[in-house]
Amino acid sequence: MSSWMYRGRSMRSNHSSSVRTNRRDSEDEYIRLDVTRDPNEMTTEILVNISRRLGISEAKKFGYLNACTNFFTKEVLANLSYNFDEILCCLRVALVHDAARIRATGIRTIRRLIKDDQDVAAIIRLRIPYLVARILDSDSDVERVQALRFCRRIILCGPNLFPNELARSLVSLANGGAEEKDKILRVCLATLAELAVMCPDAFITNGGVAAISRNLIESHSPRVTEVLVGSLLFLLVHQKTRKSAKIDLTVLSAPYCDIHYQHHGWASQEKNKEDRDCRIGSTHTALLSVLRSFPGILHFCDPTEVASGIKSLVDVLRYQHLEARKNVLDLFNDLLGVPEISWTDEASVALADVDPAKMQDAWKLSDGFVALEGKSLLPHLSVFRPNMVEIHKALLLQTFIEANLLEALIEVIVTSDSFISLRAAILLGQILQMSRNLLPTGCALPSLPTLISYASGSSCASSQQRSLSALNVISRFNAMMKTRPTPSSLFLQQLLYFSGSLKVELVAGQSVPKSTVLQLVSKDIEDSIKKSAVLANKDPFFWNWNVVLTILKSRNDSLIKLEDSNYKLFVRRLVEFFRPSNNRFSQIKLGHSHSHLYTLVACEVVEYLVEADEGEASRLLTELIIDIGEHIQAIIKADSAHDCLFSPHNVTHSMCQVYFLVIGRLCHFSKGVKVLEAASIFQSLLSLIVETKHDCYVKLVVSSLDFTNDGMPRIILGKLLKSPVESSRIYATKFLLVLVRAHVKDFEEWGMELLVMQLYDINIQVSLAASEILDEACDYKPYLEALVQLRPTLLQLGDRGRLLLMRFLSTQSGFSYLNDANFVQNELQLWKHSFNEKYVRIVEAGLHEALTMHQKNEEGSYVGRLSNVKNSVKDFYLPSHLYGQLVQHKEGLELISQDTALLKKYFEVIDVRQNATEDISKIKTAIWALSHISSSVGGINLLESLNEPVTLADCLVLLATDHPHYGVRASAFYACSLLATTELGCSQLESAGWIAVRQARNDKYPVIQVPDLSPEEPDFKFVTDDAGIWFEFPVDRRKRSTSHCSSSASAGPVITFEDEVDCAVNQIISSSANASPAKINGVSTVVPPLLSIGSQRSQTLPHSKPPKYQKHHKRSLSDTKGDSSVMGELPKIKEPNKKPERSPRVRSISVNSECTAPSFVIDDSTHENTDEYLSSSPIGSINEPNKEVLSTSWQDIKGFAALRLLPNRLGDISEINSDTSNISSKFLKPFGSSEVETPLRRAPSSLNSICRYPKLINLQLSSEPCFKGIALPADICVMFQKEQPIYITRLQRKRRDRESFCELEEVPEAGNANGRESPDSDSERSFDGTILHDSIKCISCSYRTQNPRTPIRSGKISTSSRHTRTDTESSEDFRIESFTLNSATLETATLNSNFSISNFELDMSQIKCEENAILSKCTVKKEILKHAERLSNPIWFKSSKQALLQLKQKCPQVFQDLCLYSDVCNLLENSSYRLTARKSLQELFYDCHFEELFDEAANILKLRDATSNLVFSPPSVLLEESATMTQESN
Description:
By secondary structure, the chain is mostly helical. The chain is 56% helix and 2% strand.
């Protein structure tokens, strides 16, 4: 037979054999357990088969492991005679099996047994984590996945017991996984992030912070980056972890700041460019996550730090590098919500990109359509409810301004090319726009004057040109934003036009030129028709459609009457063009250049035909509508809608959708409704939306109809809300939000009932959408009253229903309704005991969802972060609170005031000085409860009466700036917004050093109140110090406000800056009326009131001379001497040429004595009373202070008045630190008085602080919220106060590193994070430096050490719970380790046992040889541990690795010692090793057989064998048995 035949048979034979083997293995994999047997017997069978090393197939062992997973339930384990440690000892042998799937299944089996922290402790006692770490350091992905699941199970069940060996392995994998492109790197990072949250101590101790920080730049997935950033931010929140972790997220600015940044050393230029772009993207996402969190802002944006992250990014803008500037500008655009700008130098293109009304892909018919467009463009109904995202953005914006971002942008504008300069100009315009809307008056610094100075020609020609272009762009941007919100689509525009929200039909970016309109209106209609070319050319594409539109809009009388045949022909040709059957207009694509103009003309044609008087117009209109109705009926009757003209594809991509808009336009007119009814259009539309499965028709019908009048459109909408198609109900419900925001006529009468009906829809998306719309609608009082009248059942909706029901309590009718039902009292008890804390979680969850990618889906559940969708920050308005709703009226406030004990308890909780260690959740609960009470003037007065003299504003400001827990600081910061909604709350915040936005939301032009200069204002005392700085003290106020001159959004006349200056001048003159005019150097001056104290004493002295004599008197220097003996020590005025010292971080204009302490010229004729003047006689010189008053003119007075008003117009300017060493500590007192009056406060030396006069505003306090609710500190630096410096400077770090590597031999190469053994480590060192073996941390000895056995026979040997021997001793030499048989030992044994040496039959020479062999092994093991320890040092790595390989070649049997391997694992546990080093050490011990583990499992099963009369004796009792046998023989 030929050879190929044998080969064929052999192949078939092998194949059949393989099939039989696979079949047998598959049968063995499924072990069926007999559940009727005794559980102990079943357990013994399972453990015996798992722990057997030989005589069992791999498949069968695999089957028993799977059976074990399902068999060992919690109930079975409780009734077994085996304890948990014994079961684990038998199962852990699977982790050292040769087959990878057995090891993976063994880990899974042990993982399924972990139920609580006690199980975790048992696993750690048996050193199972060493074996799991061994698998983690391998290359088998199947095993490592199970090992990572094992780690996560421990984190879940016993996070505080998480073993260091696993943490070290995870950290090394995270550090080296990116370089090796490890597949499970992301899983490892996710596990580390979970460990950081659940067990921060283990995470920090084992180097997890550095590992996560390094991977922030390497991660290319936005969702992974956000998770990693979130784990680090969590550590920043708590003071303890913040200090121990020493996180430094400023390294994220390195890819932006370092132009030649390389993350992994040298590489090719193309590779570097690609890697740099990837890392810029990763860093971009990381910085977005950092700066969209409150702890991230406090950590990254500290303006007091020279090397803070935000200052580094701003400084990069000053470096003329195109790529760096572009990357930083893109980052700031995303942070501030600026849309993405195309790479262009055309201003019109860039402005179109940032236009809020630009058509978005999500607004198309195939997506959200008008419902989403209206939600995005129309303003929210909440005018006074705080928007948490707005508050966060305001804090971010103020921080950017403090970091000199505006100045940096101006420098970018004037020094960059046209592309970058245009981007910077748009960003600058956006910041200025946001500053006006979000920042309080006085927070924004002026930037346009600097840009104007460049444009005025003070710089080079290129800079001047760029600055002029930037000013033009900013001007066009502001003009564009003034017209917003403007609809983008004609559907939304028509809806707003119907509801009256738009007085003129206007769509963003589309309008007829005014010049053309004027020209056409001024000419005759016949000439216009000729210019349109409609009569001359039958091809519509040659018509002048702008002229056609203007003709139709003109509504000429002749055209309305249609008396001329040309007019009729003109209208007939237009109608023929728009008829769908002619396939002319209906075939035009939406992207056509004139598609928008065609649509406008179509709507105007229909409207013209309705208004025309001639019967010809009615006939044309009827034909057009009937033609449209036939095509709608064709959709209903056709087997497939795709075969019709109005197919889903055509209405989505062509002008066919405009016909639905035409139908909607007709609905607005009574004549049009009759035409539609005659053509049965409404019935066709109703049948279409009910029977169709295509939601495009539903969107078109609902979005085009007019709902202002009662009729068929409202019936169609009601039917659609009950449609069996879920997508139709969802869109119709969302469309109701557009009707709510558009204030459609009588919506509270018919629309609120529809919304309430949708609350109980079976689809959770519909119910959630309806509840969100109702929550917003309740901010409009008529809607809220209508909802109260409906009395819906809301508690069945859960928390969202309860919070919606709370809105009822803000009205008298709602409170009466719920109070009569005994709901209010029960709800008060519920909120008092539990729901107050739950409210805190609701607020934090909502804020996190708004700012992060971890968002809920439309069904209200979290499905994970979406990486394929660009994250868009959405608004989050503060949910309603029971207390905040009750205090809106008198009855509710009285109900709150009855439980004063609770309110006082809340005040005690938030008092940091008394309760520094209070529970964080309780502090947050108290913050939000008290803040909601303070959302009304009555609530503020109630709280002030309970906690006098400290106001709630003082407590919240203290918590927001000084509390060590960042979560509490964030809660207090956001809670201040509730106080900022009322005028009284704003005043209290200003007294605490914070300023609030005094305007309502959606107010485009807030009005500043006129300062009240009535004589009822309190008197003020003035004095100057040596620096020339004025002091002021209000007599009738307890506290001095540090805020700016407050403004209000209430109605009133618009005051110009010049008018304010005039008012301030009058105030200065009137305040100086009580001052004493004096002659200095021949010039009449006015001295401030405090300087005329001598006039109080002039009653006892001769009257001064008349003014005409006083006018020519010049005082000498000697006239003022000796004054201090009578008046006491007075502060001195600084000389005019001296200036106060500047703070090193001040960037604003300094204030010197020349502008701080001026004097003013007053005409002598205005003062008749000579007693008001300073005495000019030598005697009168005693009454005058020793100071020099400067002469000023009327222009100086006006200039100083303007200087005082500048902060209200230009912004807050940082305070200047003046020299206060020479300021007198004594205060002025009246003549003859011995008691010192109330101490005077020194006025701050900054320009802004000097000019703040909140007392000049006559507040008309409103009992209701009147402002949007944004409060910020006047000095943003107070938000960044540090407890203690916790970071090591770079210079100190370099010095420490240099000293640590001076002598490598003296440095411990391994240890914990500090280079030393952990204090809780059980390892010890002998006197010669040898590490003593720790049996508790040994895989082989741990069970025997913690579970000592007692033999049945007598004569037992006691063993300690801890067996200590050197690290170099071996388990295979256990007999000689335990009892060294030297001569002394034998002699003692002979005396005690009376046996002879001959009976023992041991040769002394043999014993000596064994001892020498042991000593040589000790030396080898010592060298192994030495080099294993040095592998953690990168400098020693190469040489130590080579030495270990040589040792293994010489002594391979030593590397099979399990105790030695345990000691190496102990080193890996307590030291930081790179991934390559860990893998090298694990590979050296791959030959270890782990026989001791199998023997231990066999011993346990023998001990538990009920049929055995003998107990298995370990080798350690060998000597005892020999002595017993000798006694018996004797």
